[in-house]
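testing teh design pipeline on a random one, pls ignore if ur not involved
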């Protein structure tokens, strides 16, 4: 049986790609590794931020939807993104940086058993910085040396992702029985699961909350993608997902990776995505994220697509 080695990426909605770029590239110091379009609707940008090459497990991605309304928070949604930083001192650095840039944030606290600094982006997306405290990270994560953030405090990659659901046991069953996650803690209305036991880079916190489902809008999270190594593993999981009674999209070629999508019993949208080919498929490392990159099947529509997009610096 194959094992899930961690998160792959997480995808959100933004109303303004330029504002989004400023926050994630200039304030958070992440590298914009790919400026492309939504392959299902090429009229909207799809931006990816991450480490030097946008390695699996470091990627935050955003679909630009200029008409997006506000998010009405609720249950049955992915509700918070954890990002790992090197140390407790890093949290103090980031608190001061957030004050400098006027970023909405709380005091340093504890979240999922780690020292943490909760904050929000300008559209209300909830995130939390987590002290990695010297714990293992994937050996292929590579720092981007041109980051605006001091090297000793840069964001390493994705950590604990929070999912809020009406029925905790349903999502727990999907994670443990279908994907082999390990339950590492449990309280009355919250449980933590890890794809690699003891490691935060594949950790999911599931909390139970009654009430209406979240109404998505700007600053909401669309889906969480988990990692597999290659197409062979992806096809294995496609079979497992279907055998467990879920409707899978089947394998889709996303050009930079291959993936499939399904919703669990709480209607949480999961993607399963391969590590490769990666964002350097159509760009050198030096030029990642600078120009508009299009998958091969959209290249003949470049002029039409560019004409509909508002330029981003």
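output:
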């Amino acid at each position: 049986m194959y094992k899930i080695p961690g998160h792959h990426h997480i995808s959100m909605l933004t109303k303004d790609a330029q504002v989004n770029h400023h926050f994630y590239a200039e304030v958070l110091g992440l590298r914009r590794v790919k400026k492309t379009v939504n392959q299902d609707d090429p009229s909207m940008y799809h931006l990816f931020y991450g480490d030097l090459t946008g390695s699996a497990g470091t990627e935050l991605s955003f679909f630009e939807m200029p008409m997006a309304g506000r998010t009405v928070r609720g249950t049955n949604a992915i509700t918070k993104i954890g990002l790992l930083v090197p140390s407790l001192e890093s949290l103090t650095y980031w608190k001061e940086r957030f004050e400098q840039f006027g970023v909405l944030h709380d005091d340093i606290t504890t979240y999922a058993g780690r020292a943490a600094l909760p904050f929000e982006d300008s559209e209300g997306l909830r995130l939390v910085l987590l002290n990695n405290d010297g714990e293992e990270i994937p050996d292929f994560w590579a720092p981007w040396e041109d980051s605006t953030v001091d090297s000793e405090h840069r964001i390493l990659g994705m950590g604990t992702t929070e999912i809020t659901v009406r029925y905790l046991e349903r999502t727990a069953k999907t994670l443990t029985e279908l994907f082999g996650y390990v339950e590492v803690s449990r309280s009355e209305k919250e449980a933590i699961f890890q794809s690699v036991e003891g490691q935060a880079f594949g950790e999911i916190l599931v909390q139970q909350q009654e009430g209406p489902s979240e109404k998505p809008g700007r600053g909401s999270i669309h889906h969480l993608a988990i990692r597999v190594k290659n197409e062979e593993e992806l096809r294995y999981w496609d079979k497992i997902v279907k055998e467990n009674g879920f409707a899978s999209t089947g394998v889709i070629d996303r050009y930079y990776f291959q993936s499939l999508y399904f919703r669990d019993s709480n209607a949480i949208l999961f993607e399963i995505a391969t590590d490769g080919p990666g964002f350097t498929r159509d760009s050198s490392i030096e030029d990642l994220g600078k120009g508009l990159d299009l998958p091969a099947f959209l290249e003949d529509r470049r002029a039409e697509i560019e004409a509909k997009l508002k330029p981003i610096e």
